[in-house]
Specification:
10 helices, Dihydrodipicolinate Reductase, domain 2, Rossmann fold, about 30% helix, 2 domains, 9-stranded mixed β-sheet, about 350 residues, 6-stranded parallel β-sheet, alpha/beta, single chain, 15 strands
């Protein structure tokens, strides 16, 4: 998309389902971004199309996304469909010459990510992933502390999310649709970890999975764990569990000069040495800035600024999750195709 000649980016939303109202949220974030406008919505549910017409006066509605992709007024689309439809629908949109913002996770398989990246490059259109939680205040506070060198060189990152509870019976618990336990919050966790360790190259991934050990009628795994080994023997341990009766800190990050422990409580603990004396600090989270994500994207499309979430970065996230499962099934560590 030529940022020198385009004055307005017109968007279509594919998927206006009621779950979390994410379709509506995307449309409103777009409309609040100077130089961008939501002009169309697609959903297979007539009730959701009616809701879109009420919530977004003047918006065009479609019940078939393929028909919407033929609309020349639309420059880009947001793919807000279930995970197993991220790849096929995005490929259709790219083939139609539309730029695409994909809801996280990018897709399910590493090869799918590569297909989308190569097609977007061939077509010369936008491809990005809505990793909006890079704008979470808790994450930004931890990352800033690390980036300022407060705990020295990070050599271990441990991330945990979960507890003990049966997952709900809907598509996010259906492995065929969701991709598995790791693809929901795990996509955020992996993206955060990779950004904490920005510049590090991945050497291999080791996965440990607990398949239906407790929740027999849910097809998602009960627990998924990825051990990621980076260059210089830096390691990350990322676990998502629904069978953990005893939890762990969300973050335990070790550096050569200190450590961070976070329990998602409004602030995190930092353990440092100050002139030879042990010190403990309580660092409050920053304010979240989700509302700035789409304006940043507008700056990229209209003014040529750097894209915040590059598709290659999103592919690394999927690769870690994908190869963790492959490793768990193989019972051995696996080298990854991309560093």
């Amino acid at each position: 998309m030529d940022s020198k000649t385009k004055k307005e980016i017109r968007w279509g939303i594919i998927g206006y389902g009621g779950a979390f109202n994410m379709g509506k949220a995307h449309a409103e974030w777009i409309n609040a971004s100077p130089g961008m406008r939501t002009v169309a919505v697609c959903d297979i549910d007539p009730a959701r199309l009616k809701a879109a017409q009420q919530e977004l006066p003047g918006v065009k509605t479609y019940s078939d996304y393929r028909e919407m992709l033929q609309d020349d007024e639309i420059d880009c689309v947001v793919n807000v469909l279930p995970h197993n439809l991220h790849y096929s629908v995005t490929m259709d949109a790219l083939n139609a010459g539309k730029g695409v913002c994909v809801e996280k996770p990018f897709c399910i398989k590493t090869e799918e990510a590569t297909d989308m990246i190569e097609l977007a490059r061939k077509k010369g259109v936008l491809l990005t992933v809505f990793h909006n939680r890079r704008h979470d205040g808790d994450y930004m506070a931890v990352k800033e502390f690390i980036d300022r060198g407060m705990i020295g060189e990070v050599f271990r990152v441990e991330a945990f999310m979960g507890g003990y509870g049966k997952p709900g019976k809907w598509w996010r618990s259906d492995k065929e649709i969701s991709g598995g336990n790791f693809y929901d919050w795990g996509a955020h966790m992996v993206d955060w970890v990779l950004n904490f360790l920005e510049g590090r190259k991945i050497k291999n991934v080791t996965g440990f999975y607990q398949w239906n050990r407790v929740w027999k009628d849910v097809t998602n795994e009960d627990e998924t764990q990825a051990i990621v080994r980076f260059d210089d023997d830096v390691v990350a341990d990322i676990t998502i569990s629904s069978i953990a009766k005893a939890g762990k800190p969300r973050w335990r990050i070790l550096g050569t000069k200190g450590a961070i422990v976070d329990n998602w409580s409004g602030s995190f603990k930092a353990y440092l040495d100050v002139k030879g004396y042990p010190a403990e600090m309580d660092i409050k989270y920053k304010k979240s800035t989700w509302e700035t994500w789409y304006p940043n994207l507008a700056d990229h499309l209209l003014r040529g600024k750097e894209l915040e979430v590059k598709p290659e970065e999103a592919r690394r996230v999927i690769m870690v999750i994908d190869y963790a499962e492959r490793s768990a099934k193989a019972g051995t560590s696996l080298e990854t195709p991309f560093e």
